[in-house]
Specification:
Number of domains: 2
Largest sheet: 5 strands, mixed
Distance between the termini: 56 Å
Oligomer: single chain
Structural class: alpha+beta
Length: 265
């Protein structure tokens, strides 16, 4: 029998239905003068409607609050930047500028640790049913990784000053061409988180973000448009003889496609 999926339900509470005190939140119930106290894991306090999500099987709740984001406009952000993502270097622009060059090291250490802990846990599962220490350290690894990602995204926006970003969607690890260790690292790639944070930061700074979905974006030469070869991180074109880093070539193709379609306007 398959295990039953965890059920999650919840409810909304208005600003008048809760108050903060004693490092927690008191939530009003239907009984007069009776509030439920919930100890909080942070010191954030809000003055808006909240949503309380219940997880009965885990005996926990999540409190979600809407966050107001101030949208900024930069008159000096006028550049149009082609961009590609990869596991080793987080971002590469069409001009060859790199951001997040240590991403591979961070992800490699994280993936290696998770793999070792999972193997050890499977060997002695009966003695480690809750894995509290594992979850705590896993969260620290992710916080460190996410902090680095956000830091480098901020640096990208600050230094490139883009009005519009053309990001290639063709960059994807090829699992069949990888050994076991590299395949596991690819499965831990934070690409989804990076895309989400990039999109969020672009919205906050009034930057237009365009995803380029062109077929063979990473296989055609950005110089002559003919099919080329990729090997060991280098793209080479047998037609025109041009050779460059494959991430730069893909970013250039994304930039050219965006400009060609008039997406810069």
């Amino acid at each position: 029998m398959k295990p039953r999926a965890e059920q999650a339900s919840g409810f909304s509470i208005s600003e008048r239905a809760y108050r903060y005190d004693n490092h927690g939140i008191y939530i009003t119930t239907k009984e007069k003068r009776n509030r439920v106290f919930v100890l909080l894991t942070d010191n954030n306090q809000y003055t808006s409607q909240l949503y309380v999500k219940l997880f009965p099987e885990k005996r926990k709740i999540e409190i979600k609050a809407p966050i107001k984001i101030a949208v900024r406009r930069h008159e000096d952000y006028t550049n149009q930047v082609g961009l590609t993502m990869a596991m080793s270097t987080m971002l590469t622009t069409h001009e060859g500028c790199r951001y997040g060059e240590n991403l591979g090291e961070y992800q490699g250490a994280y993936a290696k640790w998770v793999w070792e802990q999972t193997r050890n846990y499977n060997r002695s599962r009966t003695r480690n049913p809750r894995r509290k220490k594992y979850n705590a350290k896993k969260n620290r690894y992710e916080e460190l990784l996410h902090s680095y990602i956000n830091q480098e995204l901020n640096r990208f926006l600050r230094e490139e000053q883009p009005m519009i970003v053309f990001v290639a969607r063709s960059q994807k690890p090829y699992m069949n061409d990888m050994n076991k260790d590299t395949s596991y690292l690819a499965s831990m790639w934070q690409r989804g988180y990076i895309r989400k944070r990039l999109a969020q930061k672009c919205r906050e700074h009034s930057i237009k973000l365009v995803e380029i979905l062109e077929k063979n974006l990473d296989n055609i030469c950005s110089n002559c448009g003919k099919m080329g070869n990729r090997k060991d991180g280098v793209f080479s074109c047998p037609n025109c003889g041009r050779s460059m880093e494959e991430t730069v070539n893909t970013a250039r193709n994304a930039w050219k496609q965006g400009m060609k379609r008039g997406l810069s306007h």
